[in-house]
């Protein structure tokens, strides 16, 4: 335990910044699955047997963007082709129908349309998607707790009437990427199309329309960002009063453009935790409560229901090219992790022909199911829930980590089995979460990112730019 406590203390003192832990295992641990080895209906039937309450989160992925942000490593492609949008919407609706039995067998809790920039789709596309969902799950608008969509400020300003129509269709939350309210930093993020004036205009439009939950974000760590410019963005966003705010550390993965430029090569940034402290102080003073390590919400209004439920172990069905599905049996994708227009075309063809199958993923053992909850859900976790998920096999290891975390002031132990993060634990949650990773997942993650680092190194060598591999364990990408 002393060694683990020392390790935690050292990482905190160094200001280590791991990637935000929003999934376990991470996508980097996925590997190709044997062709035809997984039938979607069978694996979801197996998943159903692992849950006392049959529930479901639905995620629909729209990969299209007008431009690529420098920090983004998500599954996105650049296209404004309306015919492609039409064909893609048809494919997505076909997938919904093909998964009708899976959806109908569970209580649908949330619907999230992510991307990409889903707000690039036209009103007719959303009407088609929602009508298809209604044909499968007729009362979805009255039973789901959250209907969310991602949008850019410029897409809202370009078509406010179209966005208003989404509210009529049942939208309850929109995630609007802001990243900064400093013009220079907005340009640095590759978001020059969405300047400060456009951001403010988009927020005003959404609030005037009466959207129940406006979710925005800020990023700590852009090149050239100063403590003063960070405080400006935090102060100005607090004045705009969105119902939900996320503050992310900029952790540039090797498959993002920022990493390929060589401009972002850091692992230790203790001063960024000071920016975290400032944001927490300001937002809590403005009436927000902390929902997670990165997120603040207005009580009774804001929040990110799908993420919270997924962390709690509610399975997620991901449809669309590049979408991930999270079950208690297998986390999987039906395509590769490398976005491209040809692969989007293959997805459309596969959906039309009803031939989409899990192609890459990670098989979850009982032990890995327990680790998933520990990595994601230490905000408020009853360890007794994990007894049937494989906790016994790793009980000594987990106990030692939790003892070290408690000694370091990161967790409360409540009663016989409940664990909750302290305010300090919220701050350093991603460091603690990494300590629950299995050796297998660490090895897969390391191999994946070392391959990307090597590719970046070869590319930059031709330009005479040095490269440095850094990470939480000396190899893992973390910046």
UniProtKB/TrEMBL annotation:
Residues 50-295 form the Radical SAM core domain. It holds the Pfam family Radical_SAM. It comes from the Bacteria. The keyword Cell membrane does not apply. Keywords: Iron, Iron-sulfur, Metal-binding, S-adenosyl-L-methionine. InterPro entries: Aldolase_TIM, Coproporphyrinogen-III_oxidase, Elp3/MiaA/NifB-like_rSAM, rSAM, rSAM_sf. This is Heme chaperone HemW. It comes from Streptomyces cylindrosporus.
């Amino acid at each position: 335990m002393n060694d683990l406590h020392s390790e935690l203390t050292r990482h905190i003192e160094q200001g280590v910044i791991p990637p935000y832990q929003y999934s376990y295992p991470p996508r980097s641990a996925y590997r190709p699955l044997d062709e035809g080895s997984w039938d979607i209906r069978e694996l979801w039937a197996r998943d159903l047997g692992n849950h006392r309450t049959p529930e479901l989160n639905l995620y629909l992925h729209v990969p299209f963007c007008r431009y690529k942000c420098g920090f983004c490593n998500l599954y996105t492609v650049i296209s404004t082709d309306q015919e492609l949008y039409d064909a893609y919407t048809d494919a997505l609706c076909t997938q919904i129908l093909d998964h009708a039995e899976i959806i109908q067998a569970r209580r649908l809790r949330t619907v999230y349309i992510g991307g990409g920039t889903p707000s690039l789709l036209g009103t007719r596309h959303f009407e088609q998607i929602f009508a298809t969902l209604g044909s499968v799950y007729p009362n979805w608008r009255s039973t789901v707790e959250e209907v969310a969509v991602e949008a850019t400020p410029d897409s809202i300003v370009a078509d406010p009437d179209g966005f208003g129509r989404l509210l009529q269709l049942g939208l309850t939350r929109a995630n609007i990427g802001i990243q900064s309210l400093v013009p220079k930093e907005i340009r640095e993020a590759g978001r020059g199309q969405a300047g400060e004036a456009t951001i403010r205009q988009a927020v005003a439009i959404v609030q005037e329309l009466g959207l129940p939950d406006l979710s925005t974000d800020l990023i700590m760590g852009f090149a050239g960002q100063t403590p003063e410019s960070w405080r400006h963005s935090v102060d100005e966003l607090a004045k705009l009063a969105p119902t939900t705010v996320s503050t992310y550390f900029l952790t540039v993965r090797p498959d993002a453009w920022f990493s390929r430029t060589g401009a972002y090569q850091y692992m230790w940034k203790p001063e960024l935790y000071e920016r975290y402290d400032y944001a927490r102080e300001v937002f809590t003073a403005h009436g927000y409560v902390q929902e997670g390590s990165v997120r603040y919400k207005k009580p009774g209004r804001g929040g990110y229901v799908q993420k919270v439920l997924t962390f709690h172990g509610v399975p997620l069905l991901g449809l669309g090219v590049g979408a991930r599905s999270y079950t208690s049996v297998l986390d999987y994708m039906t395509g590769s992790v490398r976005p491209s227009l040809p692969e989007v075309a293959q997805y459309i063809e596969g959906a039309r022909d009803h031939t989409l199958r899990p192609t890459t993923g990670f098989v979850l053992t009982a032990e890995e199911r327990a680790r998933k909850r520990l990595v994601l859900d230490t905000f408020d976790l009853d360890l007794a829930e994990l007894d049937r998920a494989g906790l016994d096999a790793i009980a000594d290891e987990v106990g030692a980590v939790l003892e070290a975390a408690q000694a370091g002031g990161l967790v409360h132990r409540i009663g016989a089995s409940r664990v909750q993060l302290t305010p300090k634990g919220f701050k350093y949650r991603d460091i603690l979460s990494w300590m629950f990773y299995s050796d297998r997942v660490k090895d897969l993650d390391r191999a994946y990112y070392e391959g990307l680092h090597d590719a970046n190194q070869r590319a930059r060598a031709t330009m005479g730019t040095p490269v440095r591999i850094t990470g939480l364990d000396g190899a893992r990408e973390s910046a």
